[in-house]
Amino acid sequence: MSLKERSTVCSPIRTLSDLFNLSSSCLTSRLKCSQLVSRYTSPRQKILLCHDMKGGYLEDKHTQGCQTDESCYRFFRWHLIDMFVYFAHELVTIPPVVWIDCAHKNGVQILGTFITEFDKGKEICRQLLSSDHVVNQVVDALVLLMKWYSFDGYLLNIENPIEPEHIERLLSFVSKLKLACSEIDRNSIVLWYDSVTKNGDLKWQNQLNELNESFFNACDGIFLNYTWKSEMLLQSKINAGQRYRDVFVGIDVFGRGCFGGGGFNTSEAISLSHKMDLSTAIFAPGWLFETLDAKQFIENDRKFWTLLEPYTNQRTLHLKSLTTYFSDGCGEKFFLHGLEIANNSWYNLSLQSYLPNSSSEHIWSLKYDDAYFGGSYLELHGDAKGYLNLFRCCLPMKSRWEAIIVFKGSDDVMLELECDDGKLIPLDQSEEDLVIRDWKRKTYRLTANEQLSIINVSIRDEKNANTIVKLGYLSIHPVESPSLEVSSASPLIKSIEYNSNVSITVNFVDFLQEHPSSMIFVFVRDQFERYTFLGATHQSYFVIFRSTINSDKPTHSTLILRQLTMEMNISNLEICCLAYDKKFDELKAKIEADPTCVKQKDRDGRTILHWACSSGAKDIVQYLLEICNVRPDIPDELGWTPLMIAVSTGHIEIVRMLLQTNKVDIEQSNSSGARPLHYACSKNFYEIVQLLLEHDADINATDKYKQTPLDRCCSKGNTEIVKLLLRNPKIDLSMHKECDGDHSSISFEQ
């Protein structure tokens, strides 16, 4: 298996020999992970969340995400914690890339673990502590891993006895690791778990005392075992002196010997650590997912953290802009601009976006039956005044800002932005509401004061008290760095590697490495126009395993690549956006000022006419055809003509306009060999099929996969169109059998 194939799955390191074999030469290039976002942290106690979920490395091990029909664990209450530990019972637990992405974009440090336990652990420690040279080797390897994966430190857990003569070297190992990590990242964290004493005994103290304080002094803090008594916490605070907030009180959510019994009573234990002004380490929050109904996870998670919230300090993110499509990192389908493009379930925590971090007084929930982008939307229940609080943040204002909100369920949702002077920012709606597949989009220009920062983001629907609002997208950003774009970008592929019959590696162009906010989404489309979402990455490559795209019956599969960047425009040309947004007067003014702009093409080779046909802007199409004499048959880079787009989007009046010009070739095909009639049949547009047949469209035409229009509508179950085609005297039913052959192959589209 190649290095790139191996890199699609994160795994722990189980032996010292494997750790010793690490070298910078085998790590050929540093993985791209989200950088740690800064946020305001009070000088008060910290909250650490220690992941322990069925041994770890489940679906979250896939760096590109995965397809799965099972519910998967996720965490999104990032504003309530400071550190996240990825924990498993392996020698070195490396946090999966998706967790690193998720934690860092929310300003949370993430740690790996180094653990030894039982007789095997005792033997590992004997080797580790046999000489200073071996200690240095292990330290170097651990630091290399931290640097390679861009995580923030380690939790050290020695759960086996240590020979007394090796205690000094163990202390040296702890202090050397702390120093080496801090040289890479001055904010790195190395924590010691309360287990082995200074005498080498495996004897949990459940407090900071003279038996474990030497380890506490050698690193950044101690994670106390969870069978403590309240008086032990007081003594720990006294013993820690000025570093008392470096004492993390362990709390087991499973309740194994823990004060309060864990579960929904975890709040009883955290209330004591909070009262003592000590930090808290919450262990195994997977209890919510493992022991309760996974289908009720969101509701149980809300209940659990609502009970804990009074004992936490909500952290405020410091952002240059705020953009979210309200995803917790999974979905039952995949949507682009409100259009369902794939109907398979998926899981990828790297795609988690910001979720509300305000207090829990306003109830919100995630729904997965629809989305504007990704796999979910936010359903909000307003209070008696129609008020819904969303985010606490810190967005330093600049001269020109824009805010965009996309929603359903109400006609009069207003955005409210509060500054740190306590006043609301005046919002000027810069354009009329735009409706995109039932999602309403409002765009505002902000009157900014560069001395102020946005600290609260809310929405209000004064006309509809106790309203339910569906939020699909929100962005507040400087105009010069807009928010979200999903486009078929100009060529993304640098090279393709075919790895026998196992996988295909697609290497992307260097441009992507210079834009860390970019992400590539990969879909596969079969010959029946059915899409499957394979995954997403911001690495320089994507590995496609053939097992994820091959079906029982050999088919032709086309891989579709889409690039996500932090922009909102549908096209990279302003005039194309005007056509798509149906802004006739503005578009006409631009053309009159510069008639040559009608010939402009965007990065995908699409013209103004393509975009007007896509959105159904009949007046613009008529203007372009009759006044500007725009050619109606120009294909884009993939061979799509304006007629194909009008047919595929179901705009029959525009289809009629184009046909009446007598300048379009109704049999013109695209890169898939498909013609307008193929798309009308597969999309179930009965009247358009009739219209195309009236203009002598070839009813027996085949695409590159040898599919006829009849094949298309049969595969979709469009029975009325099937009847219509069968009544046509020109139908050749023998052609219908040609798609039964073996046409197994893979092609690429960008």
UniProtKB/TrEMBL annotation:
ANK repeats by residue range: 604-626, 638-660, 672-704
Entry keyword annotation includes Cytoplasm: yes
Reactions performed catalytically: an N(4)-(oligosaccharide-(1->3)-[oligosaccharide-(1->6)]-beta-D-Man-(1->4)-beta-D-GlcNAc-(1->4)-alpha-D-GlcNAc)-L-asparaginyl-[protein] + H2O = an oligosaccharide-(1->3)-[oligosaccharide-(1->6)]-beta-D-Man-(1->4)-D-GlcNAc + N(4)-(N-acetyl-beta-D-glucosaminyl)-L-asparaginyl-[protein]
MF annotations from Gene Ontology: mannosyl-glycoprotein endo-beta-N-acetylglucosaminidase activity
CDD domains tied to this protein: GH85_ENGase
This protein's record includes keyword Hydrolase: yes
EC number(s) given by UniProt: 3.2.1.96
Protein location: Cytoplasm, Cytosol
Entry keyword set: ANK repeat, Cytoplasm, Glycosidase, Hydrolase
Protein's name in the database: Cytosolic endo-beta-N-acetylglucosaminidase
Organism: Adineta ricciae
